[in-house]
Specification:
The protein is α/β, with parallel strands linked by helices. The chain is built from five helices and six strands, in the order E-H-E-H-E-E-H-H-H-E-E. The strands form two sheets. It has a four-stranded parallel beta sheet with strand order 5-2-1-6, with helices on one face. Helix 1 links the parallel strand 1 and strand 2. It is elongated, with a radius of gyration of 23 Å. It starts with 29 loop residues before the first strand and ends in a 7-residue tail after the last strand. The model has no long low-confidence stretch (mean pLDDT 92).
């Protein structure tokens, strides 16, 4: 009178191993993006995904698995609506009071800062973000990028689907 004969056989589950990327295993690519007539927010979100490495199946949150992005013609990006006048950037100087300027004023002085700030704010807020942001290279239309030896691939970003 054994009770074990009536018990069903145990079910075996297949265990999958999770892949964790190591910094030495990452093969980085170089991409070049033309920012002419691209909306800043849409372009920045696509660039942030590439810098973080979320476009790869080997994405690991605590490892920088992203690629390099060269953005040309950053002085030809556009905002939608009336953001050139209404969007205000504020910062502190360390002394009492805040400094602020509109997007149009900042664009007139430093056009590359508009896109760089948008991308920086879309990256994670940790030490890895500094490393990721250093892989973003921005150039205005009158500058030629010096990264031809890396053989960058042309990439079309911020396209409405």
């Amino acid at each position: 009178m054994e009770e074990n004969e009536n018990k069903p056989a145990p079910k075996f589950t297949r265990q999958h191993k999770t892949y964790v990327a190591k910094p030495a295993d990452v093969n980085r690519k170089w991409y070049v993006v033309d920012a002419t007539d691209k909306v800043v927010g849409r372009l920045a979100s696509d660039i942030a995904m590439i810098l973080m490495g979320k476009h790869r199946p080997t994405y690991t949150p605590h490892v920088d698995t992203g690629d390099y992005v060269i953005v040309t013609n950053v002085d030809k990006v556009v905002f939608t609506g009336r953001k050139w006048d209404n969007k205000v950037y504020t910062w502190t100087t360390g002394y009492p009071g805040l400094r602020s300027e509109t997007a149009g004023e900042r664009f007139a002085k430093h056009p590359e800062k508009i896109l760089r700030e948008a991308v920086r704010r879309m990256l994670p807020k940790n030490k890895l973000a500094v490393q990721m942001l250093s892989k973003l290279k921005t150039y205005t239309s009158d500058q030629q990028h010096p990264h031809q030896s890396q053989n960058p691939e042309a990439l079309e970003l911020a396209v409405k689907k």
